[in-house]
């Protein structure tokens, strides 16, 4: 039963009287107030009942929550700005049907392959799809969202090249630019932003070429960009490669890759993006799904984890985390990302 504790109904906890007595006895106090007296200075306590309305019955509470939800803007009727990254897409019923199949659910994290084959296969199939979409040889399954994925790509380019400068297009999503700046803060690198052409809305290719120098690790552009313009990626990538830098292409609208040439086919060394459109609704800003692909020659510098397909001692197909240089369980300070 849920019980009201001492103190005039100020505190609520889902424990029985017997459970409370047992816990208090274990820590050596007589009641909850005594416990708080020891741990919380008086100046930090509220000292009065919370200013909240009385409890509602279930039906009244549902009606109240519906009324609150009705005050939100409906994303299905809102204007969808072309380059801003979050969109309403219909998700076929087959998406839920496939992802809810029992064989893809396992009772443990993917770090123990013998008990996590379903999860590992789902990761492997996801990586394979992303690699094909991006036109690159490998893709991981570890990124939180498009912005942090792009920031991780900038750090990766710095590791690969040994350089510290990253050149950003002003037509890159401002949230992506802010996230990259946060990741590189503290002396890890320096940023330079180049303008977009006021007439076309595309990144100014001449200004970008002039910004490149011998310390440039990467050029970061978005296509379609924040203004909805499809960038001339081959030329931008060639400018980066001419100065020994990598080309990073961010794709906030992943479904655009069904129509446009893949970033890898346009010269990108690393491609990042937002995968929310593959079956997650906008939900007023989240959750999101980061995409990350790169060429195989840079795979050892790639952040996150990589699932591979193999065979066991009896020749049966199986899956395993082939690379997983994340800080929480391997390599520590030398890990290629700290996304956890």
Structural notes for this entry:
It is a single chain. The protein is built from nine helices and eleven strands. Mean pLDDT is 87; it is low at 1-10. It has helices at residues 17-27, 32-39, 58-69, 93-99, 117-134, 146-161, 174-184, 205-211, 233-242; strands spanning 3-4, 12-13, 138-139, 165-169, 190-194, 216-222, 246-251, 270-274, 290-294, 305-311, 317-324. The strands form three sheets. A seven-stranded mixed β-sheet has the order 3-9-8-7-6-4-5, with helices on both faces. A hairpin with a 5-residue loop joins strand 10 and strand 11. By secondary structure, it is α/β, with parallel strands linked by helices. The two termini are 36 Å apart.
């Amino acid at each position: 039963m849920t019980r009201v504790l001492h103190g005039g109904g100020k505190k609520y906890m889902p424990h029985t009287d017997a459970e409370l007595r047992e816990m208090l006895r274990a820590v050596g106090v007589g009641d909850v107030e005594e416990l708080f007296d020891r741990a919380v200075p008086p100046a930090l306590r509220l000292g009065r009942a919370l200013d909240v309305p009385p409890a509602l019955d279930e039906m009244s509470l549902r009606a109240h929550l519906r009324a609150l939800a009705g005050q939100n803007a409906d994303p299905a009727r809102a204007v969808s700005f072309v380059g801003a990254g979050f969109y309403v897409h219909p998700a076929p019923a087959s998406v839920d049907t496939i992802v809810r199949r029992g064989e893809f659910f396992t009772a443990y994290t993917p770090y123990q392959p013998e008990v996590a084959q379903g999860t590992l296969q789902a990761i492997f199939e996801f990586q394979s799809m992303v690699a094909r979409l991006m036109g690159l040889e490998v893709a991981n399954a570890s990124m939180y969202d498009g912005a942090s994925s792009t920031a991780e790509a900038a750090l990766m380019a710095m590791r690969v090249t040994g350089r510290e400068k990253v050149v950003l297009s002003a037509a890159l999503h401002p949230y992506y630019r802010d996230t990259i700046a946060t990741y590189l803060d503290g002396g890890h690198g320096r940023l330079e932003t180049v303008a977009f052409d006021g007439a076309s809305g595309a990144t100014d290719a001449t200004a970008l070429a002039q910004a490149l120098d011998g310390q440039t690790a990467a050029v970061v552009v978005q296509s379609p960009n924040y203004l909805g313009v499809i960038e001339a990626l081959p030329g931008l990538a060639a400018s980066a490669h001419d100065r020994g830098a990598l080309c990073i292409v961010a794709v906030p609208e992943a479904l655009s890759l069904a129509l446009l040439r893949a970033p890898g086919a346009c010269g990108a060394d690393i491609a990042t993006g937002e995968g929310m459109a593959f079956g997650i609704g906008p939900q007023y800003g989240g959750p999101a799904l980061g995409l990350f692909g790169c060429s195989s020659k840079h795979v050892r510098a790639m952040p996150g984890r990589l699932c591979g397909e193999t065979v066991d001692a009896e020749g049966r197909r199986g899956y395993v985390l082939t690379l997983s240089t994340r800080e929480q369980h391997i390599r520590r300070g030398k890990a290629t990302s700290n996304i956890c």
